[in-house]
Amino acid sequence: MPDPFDRKKELERKEREEHLKKLQDKPFSQKVKPRETFSTVKEQYGEDRPYPQRKQPEKRKPLMEHDVPFKPSNPPRKGYNKTLDKFPAYKEDPMRVVTRNKSAEHEDRGKWKPTHNKKTTPVNSVTTNFKNLKSEFPSIFRRHI
User: Fold this and answer.
1) Is 42 helix (H, G, I), strand (E, B) or coil?
2) SS3 of 92-110
3) What integer is the mean pLDDT of 2-15?
4) How far separated are the first and last CA of the chain, in Å rounded?
């Protein structure tokens, strides 16, 4: 007879429930609990007396009343993505025909010449570096006293 499909999950759930039964009421907590002192903080700093209520600041009228709506001083130029106009309608790009003109100037230039005459400079090998030689052959570079 085959085992039920969720047999493994059932066993794990039972094991977890048994474990929780053995635990204490509340797990260990490192939270610092508030402790009462001889006097409260307000009494200590002398704030236990009644203070007068704050007066709410008066609401002021605006300095100016404008008769015309706001208009920006430098409005953006008209066009795509510069105003709140609708997105422009799609226009297909016309095909461009490129024609090459062979003129007499191109033929008279002559052959190609390099821009400089500098040759590449060889780089010293890593194996001949002083530090590497010293670490490979310490007996040669040892000081003689």
Assistant:
1) helix
2) CCCCCCCCCCCCHHHHHCC
3) 87
4) 89
Residue 85 burial class via C-beta count within 10 angstroms: exposed 0-12, middle 13-18, buried 19 and up: exposed
The DSSP 8-state label assigned to residue 81 in this structure reads: T
CA neighbor of 8 nearest in space, from 16, 18, 19, 20: 16
Q: What is the 3-state secondary structure (H, E, C) of 7-19?
A: HHHHHHHHHHHHH
Q: pLDDT tens digits, residue range 74-91?
A: 776 666 667 666 777 888
Q: Are 48 and 42 in contact (CB under 8 A)?
A: yes
pLDDT digits (tens, 9 = 90+) for 91-144: 888 888 888 777 666 666 667 777 777 777 767 788 788 888 888 888 888 877
